[in-house]
Predict the structure.
Amino acid sequence: MNEERHINWIKRLIKLVEDSDIESLEVSPLTKRVRIQKSADVRTGTTSHAASVASHTQGPELAAPASGTGLVVTGDTDVFEVTSPMVGTFYRAAAPDAPPFVSVGDHVEKGQTLCILEAMKLMNELESEVSGVITEIAAENADPVEFGAPLFRIDPT
């Protein structure tokens, strides 16, 4: 992409950010990576999404963190359900021989990596939007997941 087209492309992205509920836009010219993030109101169940656009490279590349959390009321307790913000492959660990990021019973902090979702050869870290205890892991390692599929339940106690 020539420099003028690249600049016009970035200007269009900025315009999209201004005209929407997107919270932030990060552009890394060296890696040709763009990160766009929408804000989320977890209490109302609104989902936030992070998108990453990267140059074509050899092998998988780590992309921007993704998120998808909503409040689920079950009986007398409120549980946060983390759903998949994209179609991809669910991985519990960074590598086949590495320990999982989290397990049932683990306490997690807001911003802590829960898993990796691979989509189009990009590795997207899914971060927790709440602090609490993992009560359920709804997906199996290396399984394909759909947009909106439940992945984790977190008790915010």
